[in-house]
Amino acid sequence: MSENDQAGAPKLALVTGASRGLGAALAEALAARGYHVLAVARTVGALEELDDRIRAAGGQATLAPMDVTEPAAMQQMVQAIAGRWGGLDLWAHCAIHAAPMAPAPHIEGRDWTKSMLVNVEVTRGLIALLEPVLRQKQGTALFFDDARGGQKFFGAYGATKAAQIALARSWQAETVRTGPRILIDAPAPMPTAVRARFYPGEDRAALTPCKDEAARILALL
């Protein structure tokens, strides 16, 4: 019997896009609530800083410096979850690509392609990979809405974010009786790097701290 099969072993929470913003705040809050956090992001330095904060507070984390757009890496991660942990208790999907704001006729092809890849295709692939391990633990998946679809200059981000949430809502409707549980929340405006790209010069002191939103979101569990 592995340590994770023993009574009292911590629950496992996967946070994709964990290096900063809401993802980092959720990772810290989950660790403080006794979860072992599997933190996925590309930025190694930011992950290490997150790990330092989690451990300083007495929590546990495993860093996974991976690119969510690499299917082989995601498959390896899910195999590790199944093999070491026997399933997944919580998945918080915070990974997002925020393309520059632009009028619809002037959206660059590379920005559109990357937005579709990260915001839509990656989400589809992760849902397919993670549903079995979430079911093993009767787990929960968290998605975060940002209703920019149809707003001017938000063509790439708004359209692909709307598609991501539409996919999550379909999964939610399909799993009401069978699980896993799918929660979709619309966080308050926060002082994140993504928002700063959209609203440069905004008074960030008027925004809701990420840690406060993380606490509110986890209360939904």
Automatic annotation (TrEMBL):
<comment type="similarity">
    <text>Belongs to the short-chain dehydrogenases/reductases (SDR) family.</text>
</comment>
<protein>
    <submittedName>
        <fullName>SDR family NAD(P)-dependent oxidoreductase</fullName>
    </submittedName>
</protein>
<dbReference type="InterPro" id="IPR036291">
    <property type="entry name" value="NAD(P)-bd_dom_sf"/>
</dbReference>
<dbReference type="GO" id="GO:0016491">
    <property type="term" value="F:oxidoreductase activity"/>
</dbReference>
<dbReference type="InterPro" id="IPR002347">
    <property type="entry name" value="SDR_fam"/>
</dbReference>
<dbReference type="GO" id="GO:0016020">
    <property type="term" value="C:membrane"/>
</dbReference>
<dbReference type="Pfam" id="PF00106">
    <property type="entry name" value="adh_short"/>
</dbReference>
<keyword id="KW-0560">Oxidoreductase</keyword>
